[in-house]
Design goal:
Blueprint (H helix, E strand, L loop, with lengths): L15 H20 L12 H23 L2 H23 L14
Length: 109
């Protein structure tokens, strides 16, 4: 039995389906963190911090696989350059957050 398109082992963008699967699993953990108001102990007994670490690693592995089999050396270099630039920008935003003004406040009725 052969792999379907977009799955690991296929000839058409191998690994895309795995990246999407792992993104969804990380989103699920983020959703649970938001639902638990940032608490790490979920009502189902899971430790959300541990799940977060696992799912980030799983997504990183899926992305690394995809990049290694689908992209060229030059494309990967471009990605790394953009990662550095974006990371610097995100750190700047974190250091100097823009305060919310009254116009952003939402009144709940």
């Amino acid at each position: 039995m052969s792999s379907g398109d977009f799955s690991i082992g296929s000839k058409v963008w191998p690994g895309v389906s795995k990246v999407i699967e792992e993104m969804g699993e990380l989103q699920q953990v983020f959703g649970k963190l938001i639902g638990a108001a940032g608490g790490i102990n979920h009502w189902d007994g899971s430790n959300l911090r541990e799940k977060l670490i696992e799912e980030i690693a799983d997504l990183q592995a899926a992305l690394d696989f995809f990049k290694s089999v689908c992209l060229t050396f030059k494309e990967n270099a471009r990605i790394e350059d953009r990662v550095r630039k974006k990371s610097d920008l995100f750190r700047q935003w974190h250091r100097d957050p823009v305060p919310l003004t009254d116009e952003h406040d939402v009144e709940v009725k």
